[in-house]
Amino acid sequence: MKKIYNILLTLFVLTGGATSAQVVKPAAFKVPAYEKFVLPNGLTVYLMAQHEVPVINVSAIIPAGAIYDGEKSGLASLTAAGLQYGTKSYTKAQIEETLDFIGADLNTFASKESAGLTAQFASKDQDKVWPILKEVLTEPAFNAEEFAKEKKRVLLGLERAKESPRSVINSYWDKFIYGDHVYGNPVTGSPATVEKLTASDLSGFYKLNYQPQGSAISIVGDFDPKAMKEKLTRLLSGWKKGTQVQKNLASQPIAPLTSTRVLLVNKEDARETTFLIGGAGIRRDNPDYVALQVVNTVFGGRFTSWLNDELRVNSGLTYGASSRFTPLKNAGTFAISTFTATKTTGPTVNKALEVLKRFHEQGIDEETLASAKNYVKGQFPPGYETSGQLASLLNQMFWYGFNESFINNFQANVDGMTTARAKEIIAKYYPANNLQFIMVGKSADIKAIAEKLGPVTEKQIKADGF
Q1: In whole angstroms, how large is the CA radius of gyration of the chain?
Q2: Where is the signal peptide (predicted)?
């Protein structure tokens, strides 16, 4: 970002951002100019030239996430990792040695809905990197020997994850909230499902789901746009379209939450209880997305939030408490998150519910709202400072279907929030009834507490899956 912006932001932080009278407003962030075009094979390309630093960042997004795993849970994640096992022209060792020698970074991964590739390299090295990126994305080999090594690492990681409730509680939560819907699929899979996967499974998943149509690649950094457009057209036009139209599995209806439920995950050696309280949330394209960011800042989105004040600062029941909305393309969840010693499980749950009830009853006063607005506006621009962050932003715009107006009008939309509007947002999106609870801890010590909240379903943390 421009030096003047950084100076203004520093002044804003130093003034504390607590009251409108003291705040030096940061300059409104605008999306830098970019070009968008679509190749004949359907691949969407974004180019944004940024010449301040001689670096290029690449970010690709492909509709190949865990929602397409089917019964082979964990397949999307392993397929994304497998893109780097070697390609038509490069072995895994050659890819790593070439990129390491020039200080370039390459990462491939899968999430709930999509798969992705990110890369960063010096502008002067792009002719060395682009041929590798092209083959990683369009011609992976899925070497069986490398796959076997990766599967072993994944299985070990899955086993260790169950030792830490905070590492797995979100997978239990998604399965609990979404049920049999594909949004309930755990990205990592489980030991039983991953153990059965083969390199051929990865190859099959790739052929079915890694298609240029429905995918996008964003390039941000120090390059000539005309030359880059010619380069990418030459390199990526050969990526063949898929032979089958990909089904929009996530568009299937999700069963509504019509009653309070409790999932108790028993961990026999637990000395504390980790829990989530909440329910359904929002889609990413919800028009109240910005308003919710402001409101949730007050409730549980920062250190001085209501939740953290009451559960940590005032009562000492926990080291931290927060709340979050987790939006996806077609649905989302809301959750209060915290943990506490086993003996204080009851008081902590009660205190969290008390804060939620008070939030509904009292709403947000003018001073608190002003503070939340300043906080959100101060946190927003730094999320889009680097070339890598801007490349990710372009992909988000593509994936979720919003344009630069979301970014360009963000500050104005935040400023437009009123206490009356905040009250409406609380009533509409923060659940008051049919709450869902997940508690991970020692069942013998906390089951009676769970049963007071609602009907209990019990699982063993050592059991396979979620």
Answers
A1: 24
A2: 1-21
Phi, psi of 323 (to 5 degrees): -140, 155
Determine the average pLDDT of the residues in 195-199: 97
CATH 3.40.50.720 fits 35-250, yes or no: no
pLDDT over threshold 50, residue 78: yes
Distance, C-alpha 421 to centroid of its chain: 27
Q: Which CATH number is correct for 256-460, 2.40.30.10, 3.40.50.2300, 1.10.599.10, 3.30.830.10?
A: 3.30.830.10
Report phi then psi at 334, rounded to 5: -125, 140
Q: Which of 324, 45, 56 is nearest to 169 (CA)?
A: 324
The whole-chain average pLDDT of the chain stands at 93
Six-digit token string for 132:
């590798």
> 44 is written with which tokens?
């969407």
Looking at the predicted structure, is the pLDDT value of residue 25 above 70?
A: no
DSSP letter at 91 equals B
Is the fold of 35-250 the same as that of 256-460? Answer: yes
Structural domain spans, the chain: 35-250, 256-460
Structure tokens at 396: 């988000």
